[in-house]
């Protein structure tokens, strides 16, 4: 039993590091700090490996919205809506559905405009 607890304690930092790395790869940390150029660069790199990832598409659409490229953002929301609706997680850990977020942002819902996904 003690060995299992020690192993779990040793693995916890690795799991936290993986979550932080994923948040960085999807531009979450850069978005949170308002660094849209860095967020766009990180997301673009990650999209080369996973072009249909809804987290990446929605975070990039948020970058476009924040940088006066609403038309490009709307195109990404449409891509998300053309795929399966999946449950995602915000930077704060709250669950959100991909279609609900895309639709709300398309409608200009201010309550979801600032949500960042990880």
Describe the 3D structure.
The structure is a single chain. The protein is mainly α. It has one domain (23-113): Serine Threonine Protein Phosphatase 5, Tetratricopeptide repeat (Alpha Horseshoe), CATH 1.25.40. 69% of the residues lie in helices and 5% in strands. It has 7 helices and 2 strands. The chain has helices spanning 2-25, 28-32, 36-49, 54-66, 70-81, 98-106, 110-113, and strands at residues 87-89, 95-97. The protein has a two-stranded antiparallel ribbon with strand order 1-2. α3 runs antiparallel to α4 (54-66), α4 (54-66) runs antiparallel to α5 and α5 packs antiparallel against α6. It is globular.
Radius of gyration in whole Å, from Cα? Answer: 16 Å
Give the tally of structural domains. 1
The CATH C-level name is Mainly Alpha
Structural class estimated from helices and strands:
mainly alpha
Shape: globular
Mean pLDDT: 85
How many E strands? 2
Give the number of helices.
7
CATH architecture: Alpha Horseshoe
Low-confidence stretches: 1-23
Q: Biggest sheet: strands, sense, closure?
A: 2 strands, antiparallel
* Sequence of strands across the biggest β-sheet: 1-2
Ordered list of secondary-structure elements with their pairings:
Elements: H1 2-25, H2 28-32, H3 36-49, H4 54-66, H5 70-81, E1 87-89, E2 95-97, H6 98-106, H7 110-113
Antiparallel strand pairs: 1-2
Gist of the model:
By secondary structure, the chain is mainly alpha-helical.
List keywords for this structure.
118 residues, mainly alpha, Serine Threonine Protein Phosphatase 5, Tetratricopeptide repeat, two-stranded antiparallel ribbon, disordered N terminus
